[in-house]
Amino acid sequence: MRAAMAMVAFAGVAAFIFLVDPVDQYLWIKALHVIAVIAWMAGMVYLPRLFVYHADALPGGEADETFKVMERRLLKVIMTPAMIISWVLGLWLAYSGGHFSSGWFLLKFAAVVGMTVMHFYLAKSVKRFASGTNEISSSRWRALNEIPTGLMIAAVIFVIVKPFS
User: Fold this and answer.
1) C-alpha Rg value of the chain to the nearest Å
2) Are 81 and 6 in contact (CB under 8 A)?
3) Is the distance from CB of 107 to CB of 90 less than 8 angstroms?
4) Which of 1, 21, 64, 134 lies 20 to 30 Å (CA to CA) from residue 161?
5) What average pLDDT does the segment 1-13 reach?
6) How far apart are CA 40 and CA 152, in angstroms?
7) Which string of DSSP letters, residue by residue, matches 29-84?
8) What is the pLDDT of residues 79-122, one digit of tens each?
């Protein structure tokens, strides 16, 4: 419910911006896109870190239950809405900027698809932790924690440097 309310509020802000400053619409959408990406990335880096500690928590203990709540809320209230907003606004920016055939955009798109696959893997892992069926060690979660960072670095380089334009 909170996630839906957050997305409605975000859409309301975006609609207000269109009404107030339609001339700079592209720049406002780009700013909102970057805000959504930052929120998504914060969750993508923090959730695996929670898994590192959760993997070592005593099953059924107080810490285990606390991690379950934290992970579920992070995924549903922050990460998933931010991912959806990032995709919608990013595709709008790509379409309105005519970037779909650019080499740099295709590379960035591949990095974002990789990030989305990782998002869904982490979402599945939240369910595994909630049901008590996680089989991945804390050291393995530490290694998996690096994947979103690497994909984010690649996406940023492709957008800023624009190789293969």
Assistant:
1) 18
2) yes
3) no
4) 21
5) 74
6) 10
7) HHHHHHHHHHHHHHHHHHHHHHHHHHHTSPTTSHHHHHHHHHHHHIIIIIIHHHHH
8) 999 999 999 999 999 999 999 999 999 999 999 999 999 999 99
DSSP 133: -
- The residue to which tokens 């957050």 are assigned: 6
> Residue 121: enclosing H or E segment and its boundaries?
helix 103-131
* Count of CB atoms situated within 10 Å of the CB of 40: 26
- Find out whether 146 and 139 touch, Cβ atoms under 8 Å: no
Q: Distance between alpha carbon 27 and the CA centroid of its chain, in Å? A: 21
Is residue 26 within 8 Å of 97, Cβ to Cβ? yes
For residues 5 and 1, what is the distance between their CA atoms, to the nearest angstrom?
6
Distance, in Å, from the CA atom of 99 to the CA atom of 121, rounded to the nearest integer, reads 28
**C-alpha angle 28/30/36, rounded to 5°?**
105
Q: What is the pTM of this model?
A: 0.87
Closest to 89 in 3D by CA, of 144, 131, 4, 29? 29
Asked if 55 and 115 touch (Cβ cutoff 8 Å), the reply is no
Query: Could you tell me what percent of the chain has a pLDDT over 90?
Result: 80
Q: How many CB atoms lie within 10 A of CB 2?
A: 11
